């Protein structure tokens, strides 16, 4: 049994390479979506994962959910490779919550059918028991049980997202992969859903991998945060440290881009050079150096090693700031 | 729970209620459904509705004119054909053949086309290439010629015609279902089902297929009309349903020699075919209108 | 016309659409003025009418959408009275729009160069060479490296950030007096968003154009706007200078929005966020009184009647019964804003 705080999922040097077709007769080129991801997700905590679009965070989520296979490396769930678990067993213990509540619910199904689907798939033949569980989930989500026969089209975005959360939790999973769960919602609805997610985490000792581009949300909800850039984790630390004393220049740029409401400041100047990262055409040395504001000559040549101190790791030639 | 969540109510009528309202509010669709209902009722009740046996010949009463003609009588409302059979009775029984062939041919081709389309759309890649090739190959076959060849080889019967048409009319199902499946597959609820550990067959049948129902209804009704027309054509050419079975196509064929003397023999079954096909097409178009707005929401 | 007339005057602008269930009032008598060099931020959640309003000003709404206003004047012209041809002359020339998703706003079949010069040559009797010079200058100005090469490229060959820069360059081709930016950075990564915002602010300062900046993001609005209008269910619920509205939000809805923000400094890390109970009301049909009433903690019977506009500061106004009552007794409900 894994204790709270110990890693429940261990991602070990996971790589994923896609072969991208360049068009007719021009052959294929590899796209390195994940380039050696190593990450421990501690049980009962919220691991935030941030990075810009195309950095590989969604590919990682797909792999953790078993929807895609890594090209290399392995993933351990409770210290056993996930391949050892049956597809269904694994499916009942790791569940997703997606970004778009309009796309994540089958429009042809009622709330009851949507939430009980995982139970049916896992062989629960007792319809009275299923109904009890569905009603309990609705209750937890703060939704009246009379919505049980409603269709998604009759609900608002926030209500739909609650149904999606109920479906994810009905099998009592250990880990929930939240892929931008509030990005499609309005601010006031986002607050309700975030509160709900935090309450549920506490109540069921859930582990979240919380993927988001909104650093304000990630800072608020996460215990630890990992920052991805072009298929690698460039920095990881507990949320407090990462937001207070970021080590990697990319993390610093991300933090500088957070727009806390402040009428006395204009748009921030972000310490980033306007170079487009191209995952098909990675630069030599540190992949971040063409955009890095702190780059030195060595960065274009040497690939930086990962430096770790007190649970704070960063992949930068400059290493970690002095403690 | 520390935070109080707002209790929100669901808004608006259910999608089913909305769909029902749109169906009943669509004039063309309602006309088509009413017309089809009449034909179906006639086909089912033919033994009770028909004044005479459709097979009994009475050579002494050949080519009796219909009731509205001078020499007509109420005994044979639509008159008799060249063999002295009651034309109204044959017309009523003929609806059975048209409907049977229409529905079963559409059902058979629907099964083939939907299966292929689902597999191609869901799996993509090599499966998709194979299905696309099959569709192209099928489209390269001239339907009427192949049907003629097969029917002349195996002889014409209800079963043969249904099987041949099923094997020839699935292409539109396959193409439409393939693209609809691709769209559905891109939704996160498919990922959610996979993440739970759903089997592929369950995903196809329970998650994808229900979303194709409206599309299938549209294509299906158009294919029913298509099959009815083809059956008439085959029967007209003498390769469909064999005499003396009453079939509208066959009745047109039998009457064609008399067209200059007694146009009624061609006009009545011809009009029946045209009206039935019109009704079914109205239903198909109506369905298309009725399901269209849902695609956007 | 005196020189004191604002660039844009909007008084009692209403937008309504006839739907099967009745009349949907998307914008309900909104008023504001805008001077040259000024930026008005319009903030609100989805369905509050903020996009409808900007489309109405641009004259981009389809004919079945009814746009009414007591006054809608731009550079002394009555926009509602203008024939569509004159309106089309203004669009892209005197007033330009920047959309959320540049991929749908750019024509995928034309090169960047063709699209940039087309706008210019449509409004100016300028030669190909002159238009090209201008396009190159602007691409360079919006921070696009090697503009020569970009001119020959198609929209799909550019990243989202670059496409948005092209959109901005396109909007600036004719040196417009008014720029309407509708969620221009919502589809972008955060670092790119910050860069684009800085660029927009700088370009606006240089050109002296007025800007209407529409966004759902309070953080973004606070950084670009001089004055703010907070919209809810088609009406402005609070307005004033950015410093006023963000420094001391008066309306219960604005206060609620701030409490919902995870990084506003109002809520500790990991603590429950504030939330606004209930949902946005239906916009169909006539309503009397305050639209926010069903979700408001300060709701009272008077909220069912006509809602007064309470003046809480110089130009700072809130449409709220509770605020009006409180400001009468000089104890406005204050939102604690602690330093982040």
Structure description:
The complex is a heterotrimer of chains A (323), B (297) and C (340). With 323 residues, chain A is an alpha/beta fold. Chain A is built from nine helices and twelve strands. An eight-stranded mixed sheet of chain A has the order 6-7-8-3-9-10-12-11, with helices on both faces. A four-stranded antiparallel sheet of chain A has the order 2-1-4-5, covered by helices on one side. In chain A, a hairpin with a 2-residue loop joins strand 4 (72-77) and strand 5. In chain A, helix 3 runs parallel beside helix 5. Chain A is globular. The mean pLDDT of chain A is 90. Chain B contains twelve helices and no strands. Chain B has 297 residues and is mainly α. In chain B, helix 2 (27-49) packs across helix 12 and helix 10 runs parallel beside helix 11. Chain B has helices at 15-24, 27-49, 87-123, 125-140, 143-154, 158-168, 171-185, 188-196, 200-208, 213-236, 248-255, 264-296. The longest helix of chain B is centred in the middle third of the chain and has 37 residues, at 87-123. The model of chain B is unreliable at 1-8 and 293-297 (pLDDT under 50). Chain C has 340 residues and is α/β, with parallel strands linked by helices. Helix content of chain C is 33%, strand content 23%. Chain C has twelve helices and 13 strands. Chain C has an eight-stranded mixed sheet, with helices on both faces. In chain C, strands 1, 2, 4, 5 and 6 form a five-stranded antiparallel sheet that branches. The longest helix of chain C has 18 residues, at 190-207. Chain C is globular, with a radius of gyration of 21 Å. The N and C termini of chain C lie far apart (47 Å). At the A-C interface, helix 6, helix 7 and helix 9 of A face helix 7, helix 8, helix 9, helix 10 and helix 11 of C.
